[in-house]
Amino acid sequence: MSTTKLAALAGTALKNNFTSLKRPYKLSFCITYKCQSRCLTCNIWQIKPTNELSTDEIRKFAEKNNYFKWVQLTGGEPFLRSDIVEIARAFSDSCKNLYIMTMPTNSLCSADVITKNVEEILKLGIPKVEVTVSLDGYRELHDKIRGIPGNYDRAIAIFKRLIELKSRYPNLGMVFGYTMSKFNQGQFEKTYQEVKKDIPSIRYNDFHINLAQTSENYYKNESDDIRQSSEEAVKEITYVLSKRESELGIIPTLEKAFLKNLITFAKTGKSPMKSKALDASLYLDSWGNVFPSIMWNRKIGNVRETDYSLISIWDGSEAQQVRKDVRDGREPDQWTSCEAYQTLTGNVTKLF
Ligand code: SF4
């Protein structure tokens, strides 16, 4: 069953090398903008959202758009939604070829709540469930960047609970998500060594690196000065890449290619390749607004106005115009994990 779903995902991603897709296979979905953090790199926590999509609305959306093979739930803090398992179930029930579901956490809900919800999601039978635990520095640094005393210790505690859960659910994967910014410039190795003391089995491969970026429609931090210096970013990503153990398999191959292209992006500030926005993927916010990606503030519709179906938005003239803009190189420069993986699998010749 899981092999069939993997084959369906791989087949669609490969097909996207030769042709545009009729329907997207990856959904990036911000299920809530609620967040109890106080990050220096992101302003989502300042939003006090109301009227976000309800469980019933999300269920309807999943039923009407049942072609997703990859669902990325994000936030805010996704575990602040008490119905997160029901949301996962809605996609798992409706999307028969759903292979992978991912979600981040800032570790600020209780460890019991996060672990219990992850376990319930694992029980749904989705072949791969990946949790990214945010960690931007060693103890004092992470707590300073996140603005929450004790956040580092909570992240370590959650990661340990996930390691324990993985012994019972091999379909669980977890990484630390490390966002490089001007606030933690040059501090990756010190962070790694501190984590190693707390989790001796940790490897460099267990860290996923992102560069802090700005966006109007997602991070709401378009005028903030948060980026690491280009030189320092190149140096530090190159270092992380050199420390990774080589591993076979599609995920390690993608991760390596992601990092190599992240170096290019850090050097040039330009997207390393044209994205697959509104071809393989889309970004849906918690009010039902549809965007090409989290980095592109260009709303193309709202599913509350289409009875939760994406079809008329996806096939509409605004979406066609966006696709033309991508082809003509008029999309914002970015290289984020939300967009990079489907872009890489849709450009396999650039994977190695
Ligand atoms: S980066 Fe994550 S944890 Fe921090 S404010 Fe933004 S959504 Fe919240």
Explained architecture:
The protein has 352 residues and is α/β, with parallel strands linked by helices. It has a single domain, classed as Alpha-Beta Barrel (TIM Barrel), CATH 3.20.20. Helices cover 39% and strands 14% of the residues. It has helices at 2-15, 55-64, 84-94, 111-122, 139-146, 151-166, 188-198, 230-243, 250-268, 311-314, 317-327, 337-345; strands spanning 26-32, 70-75, 100-105, 128-134, 172-180, 207-211, 281-284, 289-291, 301-302. It has a 9-stranded mixed β-sheet with strand order 6-5-4-3-2-1-7-8-9, with helices on both faces. β2 (70-75), α3 and β3 form a beta-alpha-beta unit. The radius of gyration is 19 Å and the shape is globular. It starts with a helix and ends in a 7-residue tail after the last helix. The mean pLDDT is 95. Bound molecules: iron/sulfur cluster. Iron/sulfur cluster binds next to loops. Residues 35, 37, 39, 42, 44-45, 75-77, 106 line the site of iron/sulfur cluster (SF4).
Compact summary:
With 352 residues, this protein is of the alpha/beta class. It has helices at residues 2-15, 55-64, 84-94, 111-122, 139-146, 151-166, 188-198, 230-243, 250-268, 311-314, 317-327, 337-345, and strands at 26-32, 70-75, 100-105, 128-134, 172-180, 207-211, 281-284, 289-291, 301-302.
Considering DSSP H and I runs of 4 or more, what fraction of the residues is helical?
A: 25-40%
Principal-axis shape equals: globular
Briefly note the structural class of the backbone. Answer: alpha/beta
For the termini, the CA-CA separation is 29 Å
Low-confidence stretches: none
CATH homologous superfamily descriptor: Aldolase class I
Numbering strands along the chain, what is their spatial order in the largest sheet?
Answer: 6-5-4-3-2-1-7-8-9
